[in-house]
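Hey L., structure's done. Input below.
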Amino acid sequence: MNEGFRLTGIDLHDHSEPFTTAAAYLGNLVGQHTRLLCENPESVSDEDECYAKYRCLHTVRMPTDQMVGSADCNGSFKLFLDDIRFGNILVDPKTIKINALIDWEFCYTAPRQFLNSPPPWLIPNPDPWDWNSEEREESKVQVLRFIKVLQEEESRLGKDHSFSVRMQNQHENGTFWYLQAMREPWCCLELIQSWSAEVGQPLETPVDITEFVEKRFQTRTASKN
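Output:
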């Protein structure tokens, strides 16, 4: 969502106190998405697209508690980087040990669920909103391989399998798509449609949708004048 502020100039950071629950954090992200949709003149091209995006945002607002889970409702929060992948990691070629991570300036604090989500860079195209059907299937195969490696490393280090189990659950129950949508202000529609199809959750139509769309285009007209 920092990209949303950087590219539009709309101040989305209207929450000054620390979040005490992951559900509150996600609910605030939905509110930021809604502000971008309503206040950014370039967020939609026509009323049909506005209807579709608002339906998506209304639908994802409802299951935030369900996506968090009772065990993780009150945290913990972790340092997180959206773009971490091989290009951000410096490795010693002799020992194959990680020496450093770069791009720390883009880190932020996020619920642990973000860290538990399977990484999208397991396939050459790291942008889930742009995946075709073949890439979706390839991603599923690579996630299972990745989880297997995690389990082997957990066993080698004498740790339980809580991390790999959480990741597998998020892969299987569609939480991956939900959290991707929360993090991507420009591709929320495509990602939520993917989540809806994955979990069989139909998109809800809010009762105020007509009023919202009318207000949205009044705002757009006023900004042009």
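The longest helix spans residues 133-156. The mean pLDDT is 82.

-- N.
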